[in-house]
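quick one, 328 residues, struct below
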Amino acid sequence: MIRPLGAMTSPRRRACVSCIASALALAPASALAAPPTSAQPAVPAPPAASAHVGPAELSTEARADKLFRSGEQKFDSGDHAGACDDFSESLKLGPKLGTLLNLALCHETIGKPVTAWHEFSHAAAWAAQNGQRERHEFAAEHVRALEPKLPRVVLQLPADRAISGLDLDGEPVPEPRWYLPLYLDPGEHRLGVTAPGKQRATVAFRVTASPHDQLVYVPPLADEHVAPNAPPAPDTTQRTLGLVGLGVGAAGFVTGAVFGALAIAADERDPAVHDRATIATAAFVAGAAFAAVGGWLLWTSPRGAGPAAKVTATPARDGAALRLTASF
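---
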């Protein structure tokens, strides 16, 4: 059973754990320059040496060591994913080259070659900086072995390329990387695409453990839905005036009819007969004029809901009581 590097017991493996960084110089420049873009855990820089260690640092160091030992046990028992989690947390609490190497080996074991490639590359540089040749060679050897196995994804963007942003698994992708291969661990991934005046789209795809280019097609984005402007409210002024004119015209007809009837029914010697006849004539003429104008205004007004008018006339003993009501 392969043991985590921190728990190697043979002299050869113990040497590998303590010396893995100078081999980075032996790795091909193309391998270390290839910029995989999947989100990677941040690799802490080596801590600066300090002559004084306070209680807080001792407590943090003790927690980091406990997590490291837990990771070793889980790795030995076959719980590689759990081991990766423990090594990752230990590395955050206490950055150590041995922890980083164990984490890289753990990710390589669970099938995350791109993540492991990043971590082995950092470990090789770290070891080279510290002059730890055996660790350098160990890390660089894994870098070279992983390089030809890294899955690559090529994006096929829409022909117009009117895109303002891409994000991969929630992390923004710089524009210069849009047209170059993206190095991603096998598994499910999501690509977010945005463009001005377009709806945001999300493309889900699966990366297989293959070193060949895998094409991801990004369809053209749909236009944003713009709510149509509400039609302007119709101008009801003309319709209102038309209804009023018809109402006044109708009132004139009623008034003329009432006063005409009173004039006919009255005694010819009654001095009021002449006045009633005059009022009836004037009312008929005015009613006809108002009705004609009101009818024309109403006929030529825009169609739609508008005010309504109601005219009522109540005959009285000496005339007629008129009432005009309008509803809006």
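Residues 1-42, 45-55 have pLDDT under 50 and may be disordered.
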